[in-house]
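Much of what follows relies on a compact textual record of a protein's fold. A complete example follows; check for yourself that the lines match position by position.
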Amino acid sequence: MSRHGNLVGNSLAGVALCFAAGICAPQAAFSHAALMTAESAQAIRLQAQYDTGAPMAQAQVIIYAPDAPSDVWGRGITDRDGRFDFIPDDIAGRWSVQVRQAGHGVMAHVDISAGAPVIIATSPQDTWLQRAVMIALVAWGALGTALFALRNKGRPDASA
């Protein structure tokens, strides 16, 4: 027998001996499966956006149930399109949902009653007149502050 044949024979004998001893025995394959259950439920879908039409992406959502309006029932984050879905408990009444991001916020109220359709009432947007009044008030306040700061600038110090 050639030298090469001897090495192959010895290698096969070594592998057979390992399997017999359980050293190289194949291990059980561990795997996992994905499971899902599905239920039919009435969900509330909200979409939050700025008055420019841009979505409030990744905004904070806080939900209050009608039976405990001062306690937070649930929290979440809007998706990249400003959407958020939730399934309320079977509690009839006015659910309140607040969406906030970077100092901006909006509150919506969802009225749910047994056997009746869902009614969503949102807070009204500012009109152009309201915005103009707010801008004028901010400008008037800034002008008043500047005049107050400059009033003693030209006078000599009376405490000397």
User: Anything to note?
Assistant: The mean pLDDT is 75. Residues 18 and 24 are 5 Å apart (CA to CA).
